[in-house]
Write a structure and sequence with these properties.
globular; single chain; 71 residues; alpha/beta; 38% helix; 2 helices
């Protein structure tokens, strides 16, 4: 029997929200030890794509695998 995989998905914050809120959320999410966290990449501006890449890089540097996800 296979063990279930537990994953989480995060979305970059909206343009008018501080990007730091996602880092606080990621700190809390790592505590529940998901197998990986996916970062949703939407159709946004260059700044949105840059924020998504930075978030994915932060996850990668932590103890959790990340999986990019494009919508």
């Amino acid at each position: 029997m296979h063990n279930p995989i537990f994953s989480l998905e995060v979305f970059p914050p909206k343009r008018d929200a501080p990007v730091g809120t996602i880092y606080d959320a990621l700190d809390g999410l790592e505590g529940i030890k998901p197998d990986f966290i996916s970062v949703t990449y939407g159709h946004g501006t260059h700044a949105d794509r840059t924020a998504t890449a930075r978030i994915a890089n932060t996850i990668r540097k932590g103890n959790t695998r990340f999986q990019p996800w494009r919508t």
